[in-house]
Predict the 3D structure of the following.
Amino acid sequence: MAIEIRNRLGLADVKSDFRHIAGRKIENIHNELLELEAKGELKVIHITDEHKPIEAETLFGWKKKIPTTKLWHHKSCGQCGNIPGYPVSLLWFMNKFGTEYVDERNQTSCTAWNYHGSATSNPVGLAAVAVRNWHRSYELGLFPLIHCATSFGDYKEMRNLLVENKELRDEVRRIMHKIGRELVIPEEIVHYSEWVHVMRFEIAKLRKYDLSNIITTVHPACHCYKMIPEDCIYDKDIYAGKRTAVSTGVALALGAQVADYSTWYDCCGFGFRHILTEREASRSFVMDRKIRPMVREANSDVCITQDTGCTTTLDKNQWIGKAMGYTEQVPVMADVMFAALVCGADVYKIVQLQWHTTDWRPLCEKIGIDWKKSEEEYNAYLEKLRAGEKPENLYEYA
Amino acid sequence: MEYDENGVSIVSNDFKKEIFEEAKKDFRYEEYVRGCLNCGVCTGGCPPHRFFDFSPRMVLQNCKSNDPALVWGMMDEYVWACFQCFTCAMICPFLNNPGGVIAILREISVRRGFESAKKVLKPYSRVLLKLTAYGNQLSPDMIQPDFFPDWGPHIGYASEDLPLKRKAIPMPTLQVTNLAWDVAPEAMKELYTIFEEAGVFKIIEVVDPSLYEIIQDIVDDVRSE
């Protein structure tokens, strides 16, 4: 099927099934995926009308369906362990919209730390873990929504490797049979930030504060848009379609200013192993290549992220910079946390900014949010919990 | 193990050839190593290149040279400088993937139990333990001021009254302190089978035998529950 591809520079319109780059055709992997399903090689977790999908355009102009309901939350280790307001903000929005979802214990990490950090895994192990988690959502009749960019990048890569390699499929299928599961692959690998992106205009309807004087700078996650880049959302109205649109899109929809800075394309300095054992590299990168340009060039009020490792690295490494004369500071939070904050979610109970290291209070004050009241209420809530009251949860869990 | 003046371990030419052949046999290798213009755009955009003696252009050029000695020269410290951000892969005009090549070389280094890999991975024992034995790796109780003094005084917030603060997170799956989320035992058991069948446990046994024993004890406990 011919797919119209709009030239990003506006020079020409072409029709093509695929793009040629350096003699290699970048095919839309979905066609092969459906062919394998037709042959009975695997099952596909389809996005149906039940998921109320919204279409977005990817790098080459291909369409990507983003399911907006009947979702299975696939967790992020770092978000759950270190930035709890990240998934809580997402679920808070889903409750507002009446989204059908399941957040459950029956899932493992993608284990891609063992891929990019320690190399103590291999493609069979990584692909089998991916399929195991996909199959769990499949058996519940839900579509997997990936919270972590590392999982997102890893799962996109594993999907491609599985589609392209029969030997890998056979090996993973053998392992799945051992654990009573089947070889399933989702029609799309969908990151939570893509859900936020396609829901951005609905989210903006909930806005409680005027953001016209708030300057945001966006840090896009490498494993979102640099790994399998053809599968990432672009929009001709955002950066003229030349940069990924997610996160920037929701900030703009909320009425904030999005400022450019010279090191937009740089990573955060996380480095997987560097953030733990070569921290001088991570912190130097944070201050020299991200925070200082964001503040000096853009006068940023807040850095908006779309991933776990980036949020941690950029937030935690600013304090130590003072020892070397780096006085620039900017609060860091994910797109969905920023959106929740300005849509009236509680600073402490929902957005949970109290876990963040770099001071976010000046941002709240500039927006007009009474964080002190929120702090008092949260402390009172903690005392109630200490006295034995049951926690107020976003959902019931059996 | 002896090392040359560049800190690279000294091994026979046959062994270097064996390692290079192992890399080339990886089914991802051909996808990652294509024609290289030597344009250097990968290195120009490479984040760790700004802080380390590391160049994705050299990674590609060494592979393209077909000289096992040049590839061997990257196997010790060199491959561990990469941030795995894949900036190189995205901007390469020929769709090479130096970051992917690095992943292949690291996996060989770990699988073979090279001393350099053991040294690099030693500080990750706790992360490896959590991830392999329990199914996720960053637990709230790992964020301690002693471990992260450079993250500032506020980091202590995360270690004071932690169980109460975790209970106040309105997601039941997160109301634990020793794991990022409370992984169900059935999920952990399935993960163990995957790790056994895919050879992941074997890799850990090679690179850290003591850690492997601890993990196996936990695996046995969970399986017997």
In short: The CA atoms of residues 27 and 84 of chain B lie 19 Å apart. Chain B has a mean pLDDT of 94. Chain B has two domains: 13-114, 121-224. Chain B has 13 helices and no strands.
